[in-house]
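Here's a chain:
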Amino acid sequence: MYVRMEVCGIVFLLLAVLTVTVHIVRKQSRDIKELVEEKHIAYTEQPEMKVRLLTVNEYSRPGVALEKVKGIVVHYTANPGSTAMQNRNYFEGLKDSHITKASSHFIIGLRGEIVQCIPTAEIAYASNNRNKDTIAIECCHPDESGQFTEQTYQSLVRLVAYCMGRFSLTTDDVIRHHDVTGKNCPKYYVEHPDEWKQFKEDVNRFILENGG
């Protein structure tokens, strides 16, 4: 009987510690976000990138002016193992193939390389009814899980932080393609919503540590 009571006591103590730990982590995340916003901390250093703009055409770069930027939409390519340039060239080829209408402003590769396909002053064909007021970022991934490599992830954090600073946005304005249409994109972050929350926390922490 005493053994059972001791075991119950230990379990209760562990649960209490876990509850307090979760509360502290959540509070710290909230405090970081609030600190970044209240002090207007922004990260404005443009990441290194290759500018490979698409040819103006009606299938991938219509040349239409983008309204005031109100958000950033994260996507995944749904093409495991492909590179940033391969996806960029696919968008370019749509002017000839006419298969569909698709593109994005930026593509982040498996090694973290960033390719810009469309100027941020123009719309991309990426986020349906949010094309008119969002920046689209496509991310490459090595396999069917849709999870990004660490290099891709870190470049995404940096690029999103930069776009937030440039267009005076917060992480509340950073969304998934799924949040616009319900599409399973970016797959890993739709299927792991806690990881999406962690991503936003990492962006705020990056801004706090590197912004001004």
